[in-house]
Amino acid sequence: MKKFKALALSAAIGCSAFAAQSALAGFLDFALVDDTGVFQNPVVTAPGIPPATIVNDFAFNGGLDTRSTLFWGEPSNLSGLNPGLEQSNLDLVSHKSVSIDTLGDPYELSILTHNNNVVSITAATLGTAQILGALSVSSSMGVLGDIFLKTPGGDVPLGLLSAGLVLDPDVPDDIVPPADYATTIISLFDIGFTETPNFVPCDPPNPFGSTCDDFFSLMTDGGFPLHFDVYIDDKLHDLFIYSSFDADGSTIETGPLYYTPEVAATDLYTFARLTLIPEPSSIGMMLAGLLGAVGGLAVRRGKKQ
């Protein structure tokens, strides 16, 4: 049931500084902001050799996606498990445009893959990095109104949130024009990586029971997953952005730690799901109908006694 129309936890098309608008038609349309959906600022462990490298392909999959790959480590085949002598890497494929045209269904935004290959324990490995993303939000099926991020401390206007994130030194000042702050979801994910030695005893936890699974953390200042209140034609909707190990988005993964056995790969999908929030009057009518049905059932039962 994968609703696949392309994008990542970053999106924009349809505003002057963004790529040309594609033919979208949804309750919510997302587009990947230029030069986002990418890794940045990698830091490796001592002695720092070899350094981490980032390869970006902004025309991946025929131009439908952006692909960013972060490589690190000195490939090793001492165990006989890495005959291709490939570096370990994190690979992010972000779809450039996505339309949510069915309420309640998950729509894939991106796929993050950890390819865990055997690397030398004497060389530098990945320590930390970031993922920078930005999604431009519009609507083809109504008038898009205010958007608010839901937090434990209350609702935060998206425009205020975006303006604050642009002040972060790791977010480019010109990522989007100020006029587009209120319709752009900017994200900055911090990655913390642990490359474990491939011999026992391993530092716990080790959820797969294999020899010293490597793992990484994926976190934002505001936490993840995210809920937004979105008004379309003055009707309140919930926009839920979350991650899943399942390609159909059927489960929700809260992280923040993600493990991969040696010589294996882990796919982490990001989805968006939009649902209509019933108005209080509608909820009251539903409750009244339910109570009426229960009352009628009680009367019928009483007549049979």
UniProtKB/TrEMBL annotation:
Listed InterPro entries: Ice-binding_C
Pfam families tied to this protein: PEP-CTERM (PF07589)
Domain Ice-binding protein C-terminal: 277-301
Ranges annotated as spanning the membrane: 282-299
Domain of life: Bacteria
Keyword annotations: Membrane, Signal, Transmembrane, Transmembrane helix
Keyword Transport: no
Signal peptide residues on this chain, from the entry's feature table: 1-19
The protein's name: PEP-CTERM sorting domain-containing protein
Organism: Zooshikella ganghwensis
Phylogenetic placement of the source organism: Bacteria, Pseudomonadati, Pseudomonadota, Gammaproteobacteria, Oceanospirillales
